[in-house]
């Protein structure tokens, strides 16, 4: 428990600990309001525990009823170990729920303790979230604690990190004076001053030395003189008189440190942490030069958001291509945009959208009377996409061969432009991708992936009914691709007019495309001429050249718009059918030959 | 204006030892030079005549290491005290962040002290520097000499310290008061730096 003898009043405040003490007082005034967590660090015996306990005590006094706990890390680690051995980890988790001020001492003991670290991270997160105060102490700054989880490091250094330096000669004198007073030690003038000259920065050591001097004085029966000090304490303890320059430097350093505005120290600490993590901190350094204090926490949070995004991007980039590991690009918040683009491009290149299934070959598409015009248009799209305005809408009832035709076109396009990326995806899958990308903020990447395709084929767009965002993305994408001269094929089980909630843009896109129609094969056709390619027969690459020349010749007369099979084409409406191909024959024949 | 490179977090400031001829400015620098570890100082440049009068200036760069997150360097300069080197003094004083005025405590030198102090204010005014905003420390040197030869600190105060700036008695030859003086002026300069708003640093 908190030792009642330790108080703020007994703290000797000097240049070395002024920042820490001032921050601790601010915490006492308004726990949880600022500097949360407050992290104080400094070498052994400089009063870190004293300060933590003073905070506990003062908070209890100033805010009666506030639940306060002082906990040494060792004790916490023991409890954690015991709890996990007895399978009662939940008890630990519940333990701090009521605590409104938690002072955790010796945080350096978290080094390498992964479980304890995640527990502490959890506690800090939950306490911060509910405005409860955490104060921590360690013998070194957070960034120097080995094997510390990056998120925990971020939390620990996210409030205020204040160093307690070695007390200067003046403070040492005051400390010795107070110890002597508290213990009723009487010394001749100059004795404590002589001891204060020692370079000892550990208050416990100073205290021990004072005890020995007093004991010696009692034993010899007469007062010690300043000259007796070092012989009593032993030769080894005689301080090497610090040379003038060292003293000068120490004094200048500590007085400047004490006069630097707290926000600059805070910001400089943050810069040290971030640059310690390998990030470029130019943005923060610029803020360091400001006249007016900026909101350091806001700056830092903004910086953290960017670094977290960079870290996500880096992970993604490495997943795509391990050679991205350690790229400086992902350590420079100034280049976030560039990093986004880099990953987007890598994703487009290395994780292309799904392509058509190779089993659906255009040359195997059942050449029924009803499907022939559709097949002809498909051929045309493959060979002369400009002729169909780069956009084709395949309309047909279920089981009429839309999938076969769409994938077949996709495969033919792949052949036509060797090695190109052809995206072929059901509308529902596309919708899922868009929603996920919007949710995790990677929609730019999604755009890049799809903007990189040579052709886009989307099946069953009727399933986008009412999905406004997805429709918008599809419309934008389709527009962009066809403007670039890249074919877009969409399939739908009904006419555009019959589609439900449709964004005007997507409607415009759909209506601007050439429409072709597929019909289910008749029973006779199904039984006879057209045998589906068995699955796994991918050896036969899709090849439009495989289409018999006689067929091609037949198309050259132009797609049928009426006549045979009309009865089957129940959706066919002469007014809506806009398949008129001027001077089609020659080109088609030439190209196929 | 001190040179602050925020990106590299580097800070360089210039402190000038001013005062009448033979008051002990160069002696201050020599004492400092002898006590600064080699890795902390650059070469001392001293341009003097054969009889040790400073001709142009003395220059001693010190590296104080990291102070409040800044790599801090201090450049110490002395001016030539003799009256006819005014233009050199003006040159050296240019851009000073702090001044140590070294006065000679010997009674007969009081007029020269005053004259030099007036000269300093004139030079600053010519450079458009507000002397009141410039960190200034007085050093009453040669206080080791016999009492009847020198003025007491109080007597010197009456004449020289009308602005009530920090002042130190010194025996620069033996180092008494040398580092105390340097410490004070460094603190004033660096503290001013650490609060640019107050100092009007853009
Ligand atoms: N007794 C005594 N002599 C000193 C002291 N300081 C300097 N001197 C002597 O005074 C003389 C002049 O000292 P310098 O340091 O060269 O004087 P300065 O101010 O640099 O003179 P200029 O370069 O001509 O402007 C030297 O002979 C020093 O040894 C002091 O504190 N006490
Ligand atoms: Mg000189």
Describe this structure in words.
- Chain A has 593 residues and is of the alpha/beta class.
- Chain A has 4 domains: 8-163, P-loop containing nucleotide triphosphate hydrolases (Rossmann fold, 3-Layer(aba) Sandwich), CATH 3.40.50; 169-258, Helicase, Ruva Protein, domain 3 (Orthogonal Bundle); 269-349, no CATH class; 362-522 and 555-592, 3-Layer(aba) Sandwich (Rossmann fold).
- Chain A is 49% helix and 8% strand.
- Chain A has 24 helices and 10 strands.
- Chain B is an alpha/beta fold.
- Helix content of chain B is 32%, strand content 27%.
- Chain B is built from 6 helices and 8 strands, in the order E-E-H-E-E-E-H-E-H-E-H-E-H-H.
- In chain B, strands 1, 2, 3, 4, 5, 6, 7 and 8 form an 8-stranded mixed sheet that branches.
- In chain B, helix 4 (153-160) links the parallel strand 7 (136-141) and strand 8.
- In chain B, helix 2 (86-93) crosses helix 3.
- The longest helix of chain B has 17 residues, at 110-126.
- Chain B is globular and about 50 Å long.
- Chains A and B meet through helix 11, helix 12 and helix 13 of A and strand 4 and helix 5 of B.
Q: What integer value in Å does the Rg of chain A equal?
A: 39 Å
Structural class computed from helices and strand pairing of chain B: alpha/beta
Task: Give the class-level CATH name of the largest domain in chain A.
Answer: Alpha Beta
Span from first to last CA of chain A? 94 Å
Largest interface: A-B, 27 and 28 residues
CATH H-level superfamily of the largest domain in chain A: P-loop containing nucleotide triphosphate hydrolases
**The CATH homologous superfamily of chain B:** P-loop containing nucleotide triphosphate hydrolases
Kindly state the percentage of residues in helix of chain A: 40-55%
Largest sheet features of chain A: 5 strands, parallel
| Shape estimate of chain A | elongated
Mean pLDDT over the residues of chain B = 88
Q: What do we call the CATH topology of the largest domain in chain A?
A: Rossmann fold
Number of strands of chain B: 8
Q: What proportion of the residues of chain B is helical, as a percent range?
A: 25-40%
Structural class of chain A: alpha/beta
């Amino acid at each position: 428990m908190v030792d009642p003898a330790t108080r703020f009043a007994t703290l000797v405040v000097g240049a070395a600990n002024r920042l820490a003490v001032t921050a601790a007082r601010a915490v006492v005034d308004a726990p949880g309001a600022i500097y949360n967590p407050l992290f104080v660090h400094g070498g052994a015996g400089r009063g870190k525990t004293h300060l933590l306990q003073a905070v506990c005590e003062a908070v209890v006094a100033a805010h009666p009823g506030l639940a306060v706990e002082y906990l040494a890390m060792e004790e916490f680690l023991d409890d954690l170990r015991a709890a996990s051995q007895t399978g009662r980890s939940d008890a630990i988790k519940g333990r701090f729920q009521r605590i409104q001020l938690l002072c955790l001492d010796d945080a350096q003991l978290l080094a390498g303790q992964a479980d304890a670290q995640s527990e502490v991270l959890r506690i800090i997160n939950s306490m911060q979230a509910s405005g409860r105060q955490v104060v921590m102490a360690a013998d070194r700054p957070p960034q120097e604690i080995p094997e510390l989880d990056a998120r925990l490091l971020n939390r620990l250094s996210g409030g205020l990190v204040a160093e307690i330096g070695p007390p200067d000669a003046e403070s040492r004198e005051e400390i010795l004076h107070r110890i002597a007073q508290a213990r009723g030690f009487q010394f001749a003038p100059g004795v404590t001053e002589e001891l204060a000259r020692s370079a000892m920065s550990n208050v416990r050591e100073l205290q021990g030395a004072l005890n020995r001097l007093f004991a010696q004085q009692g034993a010899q029966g007469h007062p010690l003189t300043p000259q007796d000090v070092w012989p009593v304490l032993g030769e080894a303890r005689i301080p090497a008189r610090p040379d003038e320059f060292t003293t000068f430097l120490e004094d200048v350093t500590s007085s400047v440190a004490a006069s630097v505005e707290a926000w600059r120290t805070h910001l400089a600490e943050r810069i040290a942490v971030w640059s310690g993590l390998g990030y470029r901190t130019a943005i923060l350094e610029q803020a360091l030069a400001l006249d007016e204090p900026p909101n350091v926490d806001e700056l830092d949070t903004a910086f953290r958001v960017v670094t977290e995004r960079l870290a996500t991007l880096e992970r993604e980039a490495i997943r795509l291509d391990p050679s991205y590991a350690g790229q400086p690009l992902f350590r420079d918040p100034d280049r976030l945009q560039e990093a986004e683009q880099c990953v987007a491009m890598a994703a487009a290149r290395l994780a292309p959208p799904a392509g058509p299934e190779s089993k659906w070959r255009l040359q195997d598409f059942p050449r029924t009377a009803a499907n022939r015009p559709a097949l002809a248009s498909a051929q045309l799209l493959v060979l002369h996409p400009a002729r169909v305005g780069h956009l084709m809408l395949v309309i047909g009832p279920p089981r009429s061969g839309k999938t076969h035709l769409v994938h077949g076109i996709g495969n033919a396009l792949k052949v036509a432009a060797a090695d190109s990326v052809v995206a072929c995806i059901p509308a529902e899958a596309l919708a899922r991708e868009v929603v996920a990308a919007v949710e995790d903020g990677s929609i730019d990447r999604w755009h890049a992936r799809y903007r990189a395709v040579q052709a886009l084929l989307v099946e069953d767009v009727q399933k986008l009914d009412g999905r406004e965002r997805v429709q918008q993305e599809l419309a934008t994408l389709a527009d962009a691709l066809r403007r670039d001269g890249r074919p877009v094929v969409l399939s739908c089980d009904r006419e555009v007019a019959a589609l439900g909630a449709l964004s005007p843009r997507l409607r415009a896109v759909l209506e601007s495309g050439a429409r072709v129609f597929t019909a289910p094969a008749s029973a006779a056709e199904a039984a006879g001429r057209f045998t589906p390619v068995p699955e796994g027969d991918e050896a036969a690459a899709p090849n439009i050249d495989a289409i018999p020349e006689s067929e091609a010749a037949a198309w050259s007369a132009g797609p049928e718009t009426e006549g045979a099979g009309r009865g089957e084409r129940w959706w066919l409406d002469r007014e809506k059918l806009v398949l008129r191909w001027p001077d089609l024959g020659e080109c088609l024949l030439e190209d196929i030959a | 204006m001190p040179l602050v490179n925020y990106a590299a977090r580097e800070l360089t400031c210039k402190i000038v030892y001013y005062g009448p001829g033979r008051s002990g400015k160069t002696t201050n620098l020599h004492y400092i030079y002898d006590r600064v570890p080699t890795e902390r100082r650059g070469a001392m440049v001293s341009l003097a005549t054969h009889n040790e009068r400073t001709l142009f200036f003395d220059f001693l760069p010190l590296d104080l290491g990291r102070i409040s997150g800044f790599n801090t360097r201090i450049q110490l300069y002395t001016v030539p005290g003799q009256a006819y080197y005014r233009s050199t003094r003006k040159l050296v004083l240019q851009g000073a962040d702090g001044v140590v005025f070294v006065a000679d405590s010997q009674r007969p030198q009081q007029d020269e002290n005053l004259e030099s102090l007036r000269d300093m204010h004139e030079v600053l005014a010519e450079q458009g520097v507000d002397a009141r905003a410039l960190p200034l420390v007085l050093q009453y040197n040669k206080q080791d000499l016999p009492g009847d030869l020198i003025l007491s600190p109080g007597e010197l105060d009456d004449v020289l310290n009308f602005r009530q700036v920090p002042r130190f008695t010194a025996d620069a030859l033996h180092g008494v008061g040398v580092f105390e003086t340097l410490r004070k002026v460094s603190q004033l300069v660096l503290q001013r730096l650490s609060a640019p708003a107050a100092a009007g640093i853009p």
